[in-house]
From TrEMBL:
Entry annotated with the keyword Transcription regulation: no
Source organism (scientific name): Chryseobacterium balustinum
Molecular functions (GO terms): ferredoxin-NADP+ reductase activity; flavin adenine dinucleotide binding; monooxygenase activity
One Pfam family named in its UniProt record: Pyr_redox_3
EC number: 1.18.1.2
Keywords noted in UniProt: Oxidoreductase
Annotated PANTHER family: BACILLIREDOXIN REDUCTASE BDR, FLAVIN-BINDING MONOOXYGENASE-LIKE PROTEIN (AFU_ORTHOLOGUE AFUA_4G09220)
Protein name: Ferredoxin--NADP reductase
Length: 330
């Protein structure tokens, strides 16, 4: 007990510990550095880890200027940059600005004793006066909870079309990720069937892509079942309910379950953050980003709970400035 107390006393107390090295976490670090605050980012993967795991040929909805952080220009060959350009931009900033980051280290627990936070990770322990959670939402798939979802042929993450050439696949949903997967795999010789709960392709699909998918469906190159629901996945087939309520079973090699992703609600709740409503919205002050726990802040997509379309890079870049301003004022 005495040894643990002495260890705690001699630990460096950071001004800020930031969880997550995505674009918004990096922006928080840059804002802290600009104001001479002692900070550290802890990241369970690589720099901008979620972006690294995006589909290889993904194009952003936003233009390059809307993805910039800390007023550092983002130079792109096209109006809407791709994954590789974004990786170069954000990882380049981390190198050039010499941001303090510990990579491949997972935060396990955040607790508070008095006014000091204790952060336990997979590699060490830290103490800090303030903690910023900027963990995004790409780690936990939004499961369908149907029989067979745990089969190896079911993929909740899509990276490139080549593994699916000359295969029969089912793509679930009509979001941007679903549509991109359907079009890319179709163009590599894949037999694509889309199973979509709604009556049409989502209006959130990128405007330059939506006509393409609608035309491929209209001509029959890609099969689409609207107002339909997948109910079971088997080794060689899938079973779904069509818009008439009839049960259909079709041959299938792979299922791309592009059903979205969720923040780590268990981690948020275990850190003491209150969640409310069906969307499990975290409680925070919209002017300071401070949660119901004093000096514990949220930044970026994680603020939206299950509504992962509410916050994105473009409109959450301001969170860093809001948080640091509040820290400096207290």
């Amino acid at each position: 007990m005495l040894q643990a107390f002495l260890y705690f006393c001699y630990m460096e107390i950071l001004d800020i510990l930031i969880i997550g090295a995505g674009p918004i976490g990096l922006n928080c670090a840059l804002e802290a550095k600009k104001n001479n605050l002692n900070y550290l980012i802890i990241e369970k993967g690589t720099i901008v880890n979620s972006l690294y795991n995006y589909p290889l040929y993904m194009k952003f909805f936003s233009t390059a200027d809307k993805l910039e952080i800390a007023e550092i220009p983002f130079i792109s060959a096209a109006p809407k940059p791709g994954r590789q350009e974004a990786l170069e931009y954000y990882q380049g900033i981390a190198r050039q600005k010499n941001i303090n980051i510990n990579l491949y280290e997972k935060v396990l627990k955040v607790s508070k004793t008095g006014k000091i936070f204790e952060i336990e990770t997979s590699k060490s322990k830290y103490t800090a006066k303030n903690v910023i959670i900027s963990t995004g939402f790409y780690d936990i798939p939004n499961l369908m909870n149907i029989p067979g979802e745990d089969l190896p042929k079911v993929k909740h993450y899509y990276t490139e079309p080549y593994p699916y050439a000359k295969q029969k696949i089912v793509v679930i949903g009509s979001s941007n990720s679903s549509v991109d997967a359907a079009l890319e795999t179709y163009r590599k010789g894949t037999e694509v069937t889309m199973v979509i709960r709604n009556s049409e392709i989502s209006n959130n699909v990128k405007y330059w892509v939506k006509p393409d998918i609608e035309n491929r469906i209209a001509e029959g190159s890609i099969k689409a079942h609207f107002n339909a629901e997948l109910i079971e996945i088997k080794e060689k087939t899938v079973i779904f309910k069509d818009k008439e309520g009839e049960i259909q079973e079709i041959e299938n090699d792979f299922v791309l379950a592009m059903t979205g992703y969720l923040p780590d609600f268990y981690f948020l709740k275990n850190s003491g953050i209150d969640l409310q409503g069906e969307c499990l919205n975290p409680i925070y002050n919209h002017e300071t980003m401070e949660t119901n726990i004093e000096n514990l802040y949220l930044a970026g997509v994680v603020c939206g709970g299950k509504d992962t379309h509410l916050w994105f890079i473009e409109n959450s870049r301001i969170h860093a400035e809001m948080i640091i301003r509040n820290i400096l004022s207290t």
